[in-house]
Amino acid sequence: MASTARAVRPAGTTRPINWGRITGKVLAWVALLLLVAITLYPILIMVTTSFKSNSEALSNTTLFPSVWHFDNYPKMWVSINFGNYLKNSLIICGSTMVVATLLATFASYALARFNFPGRDTYGIAILATQLIPGIMFLLPLFNFFKWMRDNLGIPLLNTYLGMIVLYVAFFLPLSLWILRSFFAAIPPDLEEQAMVDGCNRFQAFYKIALPLARPGIAATAIYVFLTAWDELLFAWVMTTTDDVQTVPVGIRLYLGQVAGNKSNYELAMAAAVVVTIPLLILFFFVQKQMISGLTAGAVKS
Amino acid sequence: MATPRATTAVPQAFVQPRHGLWWRVRRNGFAYAMIAPAVLAMILVHLIPTAQAIYMSFLDLRVRTLKQFLGAPFIGLNNYTDVFKATSPLSFGLADAARNTFFYAIVVNIGTILVGLGAALLINREFRGRGIIRTLLLMPWILPTYIVGLVWGFMWRQDTGAINNILVALGLTDHQHAPFWLIGPNVFWAITIPTIWRGFPFTMILLLSGLQVIPGDLYEAAKIDGANALQSFRHITAPLLKPVLSIIVLWGVIGSVYAYNIVAVMFGNGAGYPGANGDLMQVLIQRQTFQGYAFGAGSAVSVMLMIAMLIFVAIWYAFFRQSLSTEPKNS
C-alpha cells in the first residue's frame, strides 16, 4: 500500500505525516502482540514447568526454572507406565486414522460424484449424527459391549478392537464431510476421459481422482488423528484396565497416585510436552492443506 | 384440467427422461458399494445405539437390572418425570449443570467469535511476519483439549497459579486476597476462558477465509462515498460474513453444549465434581450415570439434552435461513 502511494506522488514532494494512521497501526500491532502473548503464555508455562523441580513447579515464583531438570522426562516415563499409554494411543488413533480415512474416501467420492437415490438423505444423516451427544451413544454401547462379552464371549470392552470400531464410526461423519468437498472440487472430465479410454468406474476413481485428492485425504487423515488423540469421554468410560487406556486417561495419575499423593505437575507437564510438541511440528508442515480442507468443509456445508 | 396445464407450462425439451426409482438404484450400484462400509459403520455405532438410548430411557435399567439390558422392566415416562421430582439419581445438581451449560454455550460462543473476529481483522492486512504470527495464533487449536484442561487447571490455582501471579504483579490484588478460581462462582470463568482460548483460532481461520473472498473494491467504493472504517465494517464486512458466521455458531454451540474434556480434566479427569458453578451436562450425565449404573435415568437426561439441541438447531435455521440460501447450493 505504501509503495503504490509513493508511485502516485509527484517527485520531490514528501508525504505529510498522518498521525491518525500511525496511531492506528501502532494500536493494531500492540493488540496483535498482546494476543500472541496470551496465546503462547500457557504453552510456555507447560514447557518451562516440565523442566522445574517438584517444589519449584508448585511454588511457581518464576516462569523459568532456576535449575533445568531434564531428568523430569525419564522420570515421567517410569513413574507411571507412560510408554504403555502412549503405545495404546498410537495404536488406537493410528488404526482409526487409517480405517476411517479409507472408508470416508470411498463414501465421500460416491457422495461427490453420483446423484444416487438416497444421497441427500444420507448427507443429512451425516450431519444429524453431530447433534447426538456422545454420552447418548455411550450408555447403550457400554451395555452392548458388556452384553457381547457376557453372552457371546466377544471381547470389545477393554480391547483395541472395541475402541477402534467406536472411534472409526464416531469420527467417520466429519471426515466424510471434509473429504466430500475435496472430491467435489475435482472436475469429473478427467475420469470420463479415462473411462472412454477403457478404465472401469473403479479404475477411474483409483487412478485419476484418488491421486488428485491426495492433499485432501492427507488433511482428513491428520484431522481424524488429532480428534482421536484428544478423545477422553469414550476412552474414560469404555476402558477399565491400562491395557488399552490412552494418554488422556493415564495423564491424571501424575496429579494423584505418583510418589505418595503429591501433585507432580512437572511430570504431567513433561508428558503434555511429549504428546503435544510432535503435533505442533506436524502442524507446521501441513497447516495449509488442513486449513483449506476444514474451511472448505465448514463454509460449503 | 390440471394435467394439460402442467404439460404446456414446461417446454418438452426440458422434461428429463423419466426413469423409475428402481432403474436409478440399479444404475448406481457402484456408488452404493462405495458408501456401504461407511453406512454400515454408522448404522452400528450411530443409528442403533441412538435408538437403543431412546428405548432405554423408558426402562428401569439400573444396577439391579443391568444384566437384562434391553429386557429391563418398561416404566414409561417415569425416568423423565423423576428428574423433575428430584427422585432420580441424575437429579442432584442437574439444574446447576443445565444453567451452567446454557451460559457456558452463550459466553464461549460470543467470546470466541469476538476474539476470533478481532484476530482475523488484525491478520487480514499485509505486513511482514504475517504468516508466522498466524501460525503462532493457531497453536492452541492443535493442543489437545485435555492438555488445555491440565495446563489451565495448573494456572488457575489460588496460591501460586500463573493467573493470580499476573494479577498480583499488576497490583490488582495480593496473594492473601487473590481470588479462588477452582472453587466457588469463579469456576465458571475457569472453564469458559480456556475454552475460548482453545476455540478462537479456528474461528479466526474461518472468518479469515470469509474476509478474503470479499472484493477489495467494495471498500474502495465505500471510502469514496465517505464511509468510515466502522461504517464499512457494519455495511460490508458484517453482512458478507454472515454465512460463515452461521456455520461458526452452529458448530460452536454444538461443541460447547456437548463439551466434556476441559472441565473433566480440570476436576479429577471425570472422577471429580466440578462444583455447582462448573458442572456441565455431559460431565454430569457421565458421572452420575456410571456412579450408580443408572442407565435408564441417564438415557432420559441424554434424550432431553438432544431435544434441547434440536430446538436450538430449529431456531438457528429460522434465524440464518436467508443467509444460507444466498449461498450456491451444492448439496
Description:
The complex is a heterodimer of chains A (301) and B (331). In chain A, 73% of the residues lie in helices and 0% in strands. Chain A has 301 residues and is mostly helical. In chain A, helix 5 crosses helix 11, helix 8 packs antiparallel against helix 11 and helix 11 packs across helix 14 (265-300). The longest helix of chain A is centred in the last third of the chain and has 36 residues, at 265-300. Chain B has 331 residues and is mainly alpha-helical. Helix content of chain B is 68%, strand content 0%. In chain B, helix 5 runs parallel beside helix 9 (187-212) and helix 9 (187-212) packs across helix 11 (229-257). Chains A and B meet through helix 2, helix 5, helix 6, helix 7 and helix 8 of A and helix 2, helix 3, helix 5, helix 6 and helix 7 of B.
Keywords:
heterodimer, A: 301 residues, mainly alpha, 14 helices, 0% strand, flat, disordered N terminus, B: 331 residues, 68% helix
Topology (elements, then pairings):
The complex is a heterodimer of chains A (301) and B (331).
Chain A lengths: L1 H7 L10 H31 L4 H6 L12 H8 L2 H32 L5 H10 L5 H19 L7 H25 L4 H8 L4 H12 L1 H16 L3 H6 L8 H4 L14 H36 L1
Helix pairs in contact in A: 4-14, 5-8, 5-11, 8-11, 8-14, 9-10, 11-14
Chain B lengths: L1 H8 L11 H7 L1 H28 L21 H7 L9 H30 L6 H13 L2 H11 L6 H8 L17 H26 L3 H9 L4 H29 L3 H6 L14 H12 L2 H31 L6
Helix pairs in contact in B: 4-14, 5-9, 5-11, 6-9, 7-9, 9-11, 11-14, 13-14
Gap between N and C termini of chain A: 35 Å
- Total E-strand runs of chain B: 0
Beta-strand percent range of chain A: under 5%
Radius of gyration of chain B: 26 Å
Please summarize what this structure is.
By secondary structure, chain A is an all-alpha fold. Chain A has helices at 2-8, 19-49, 54-59, 72-79, 82-113, 119-128, 134-152, 160-184, 189-196, 201-212, 214-229, 233-238, 247-250, 265-300. Chain B starts with a helix and ends in a 6-residue tail after the last helix.
